[in-house]
Amino acid sequence: MEKQHPIRALLASRTAEKPVGVYSACTANRHVIRAVCKRAKETGTVALVEATANQVNRYGGYTGMTPESYAAFVKEIAAEVGLAETQLVLGGDHLGPLTWQSLEEAAAMEKAEELVRDYVRAGFTKIHIDTSMRVADDSREERLSDETIARRGAILAKAAEEEFAARKTLVADAVHPIYCIGSEVPIPGGAQEAEDSVAVTKPEAFTHCVEAFRSAFAAAGAEAAWPYVTGVVVQPGVEFGDEDVIEYNAEKAAELIAARSAYEGIVFEGHSTDYQTKYGLAEMVRDGIAILKVGPALTFALREGLFALAKMEEALAPQFAELCPSDYINVMEAVMMENDGNWRKYYHGDAAKQAFKRKYSYSDRCRYYLPDERLRAAEATLLANLNAMQIPFSLLSQYMPIQYTKVREGKLANTAEALLGDRIENCIDEYLFAVGAL
């Protein structure tokens, strides 16, 4: 008997009275992954951790990790906090020609197929197939048709099925991957320009997309993959920019939500759900947007925690002349200014506006710089200094009031690492509330 995928099992338990869901942490940051796994253990939920094609691929991505090394990295962190491996699901996000859009279709899809195979081979069991982006020989004058997107997606689904069959011969109890598809996929990382509203996917566009994919799977000989299609990525009307958040509006999404009822066993996957309120997120889950992707909001919370710790270090530094200050905030600024490739084309405005966005933008381009050796060294110094300084309650109340209360109540240790992790957990708990785990 086939081993049931934990996310499929969870979603199958959805009822009108208990509309449960799952959130997906799209990240390669150790602090964030640790917080996700810790809360999964404490709440008895599934930790769904995803890597994007840009972050992790056979060439190293911008993290320097392959799918195999990323899987080992996440499993190591999960083991450190005592999370059972059965509660951990690894996902691949935007798997397709995203990283190779400068190549023509044949070459780009060859790379995309290698990518999908690498993820499945490494044990990733939630596969987001994303072929919604143009490649070099696509027209720039018109949108890619659903048929083209679906045809390319079916090629990747077939590759995933073939690779899983090979994996199954080596790992007898391997869980069959589930798939997320779609043609209206929001840009990874949030909008690049301020927006007042965003168009909700039209119900007929959703239906046409699903049928195009179903037909393409059959034409490509990938029929065996279709029963494992669990999610369809749609635009439910949520987005965020540098300083703005477009909130979920259930009325505007009502027709789209109604269209899903024709497809039993399929839920919507919502991207760019970062910075929605927990009540807005819960509404989304209630309406069948039962897979919530979150990425920048988690590292934004991490950055807030690091800046709060840095401010406390700065306030205490005159009393500890023997300690060398981390100067964390200024180190981050220096690193980002020396290598502007990950923020320059995203942050617009004059110098003052750009300086503000480098630190405080919701799009959180800071996250691309966190692995830098200088920032890692500054972070280590910051945490060590604060542990040596022993943060006074009065200062903790000023900069981390939520954590202050938990420390005073004996629920949280007054260490720099615990405070930082708990700040990330504040964000995680909003998603746990939304998916019915809290």
Structural features, described:
- The structure is a single chain.
- This protein is of the alpha/beta class and 438 residues long.
- The protein has 15 helices and ten strands.
- The protein has helices spanning 6-12, 30-43, 67-81, 105-121, 146-170, 203-219, 250-259, 278-286, 296-316, 328-338, 351-360, 373-389, 393-399, 401-408, 416-434; strands at residues 22-26, 47-52, 88-95, 126-129, 178-181, 229-234, 239-240, 245-246, 267-270, 291-294.
- The strands form two sheets. The chain has an eight-stranded parallel beta barrel with strand order 1-2-3-4-5-6-9-10, surrounded by eight helices. The protein has a two-stranded antiparallel ribbon with strand order 7-8.
Describe how the helices and strands are arranged.
Elements: H1 6-12, E1 22-26, H2 30-43, E2 47-52, H3 67-81, E3 88-95, H4 105-121, E4 126-129, H5 146-170, E5 178-181, H6 203-219, E6 229-234, E7 239-240, E8 245-246, H7 250-259, E9 267-270, H8 278-286, E10 291-294, H9 296-316, H10 328-338, H11 351-360, H12 373-389, H13 393-399, H14 401-408, H15 416-434
Parallel strand pairs: 1-2, 1-10, 2-3, 3-4, 4-5, 5-6, 6-9, 9-10
Antiparallel strand pairs: 7-8
Helix pairs in contact: 2-3, 2-15, 4-5, 5-6, 6-7, 8-15, 9-12, 9-15, 10-12, 13-14
